[in-house]
Amino acid sequence: MDFSKAYIETEVAKRFWYHKINLGNGIITPGYDFDDVWNGIRKSRETIDYKGKRVLDIASWDGMWAFEAEKLGASFVVATDADNRNENFEFVRSVLNSSVRSYYNIPPHRLSDRLDAVIFSHSNPGLPSQPQQKEYLKLNEFDIVQHLGLLYHLRDPLLTISQARSVIKEDGYLLLETAVIIDDNQSCMYFNNNNMFGACGKLPIYDDISTWWAPTVPCLIEMVQSSLFEVNQHSIRIHKQTDHVGRASLVAKAVAPEKANPLLANELAKTYRHAGMQINIFRRYLKT
Question: What is the β-pairing status of strands 76-80 and 101-103?
Fold first, then answer.
């Protein structure tokens, strides 16, 4: 394959780009002008050591965050998206000679049941026998899950935070970024009234049919904490977009049920009514 500067520039010019990705030779893909938001994420990310870590990047799109994780020293990176338009990602991976694995058929609310083959195949050349599978899953869960620019696009945001927790090792990290409400200090979520789009005047978040919810900052923290995470308060970065809406990024550590409020842990262990939470998280806890 010809990866001359002229070829790369021609290919970049043909495509629509969301992310700005450095391809070398002075070439950067012409993504959106979201640098202030993205730099806030990078500031939050500084609290995590990526060296030798297993990383899952959700809603990767062009793959900027997955490729950056690899550059930060991650030993194994998986990029997922529910959208199968992965041509940009594959082009960048080839140009960078990257080892990031792509699975562009995995929705964010089905991580735990769609990534099992990825986890098993990386831990062992052959698929483990049935008695071994749970142990392989435990050993090879991800150290870091990147959940960036996605939460506000989802009708069921807590479901994906629960799914992220279900594939992260205890003491692993969630790197999360989303739209937030910045002029309300209550712990609440704002709904974007998409079923009445245009009928109620200005929408409370974005004038965007794909936006559903935005939590206040206190609510975002409590949503993460209620999913068996401990938020690093020093990692929180807020970027103001209007007087009402902004963007927030944070890092949270995955904690064992034993370290959570016992009432919360007992309730979450009833996974039959808490979609996204997996029983593997509670196996040891329920034996104590």
Answer: parallel
79 has which bridge partners?
57, 102
Please give, one letter per residue, the 3-state secondary structure of 253-278.
Answer: EECCHHHCCHHHHHHHCCHHHCCCCC
Q: Which CATH code is given to the segment(s) 5-256?
A: 3.40.50.150
Look at residues 94, 86, 45 and name the one whose alpha carbon lies nearest to residue 63.
86
Interior angle at CA 234, CA 266 and CA 211, nearest 5 = 70
Query: Domain spans of the chain?
Result: 5-256
- The 3-class SS string of 33-65 reads CCHHHHHHHHHHHCCCCCCCCEEEEECCCCCHH
3 state SS of 156: coil
The whole model's pTM is what? 0.91
pLDDT digits (tens, 9 = 90+) for 97-148: 999 999 999 999 999 888 876 665 544 444 444 455 454 445 568 999 999 9
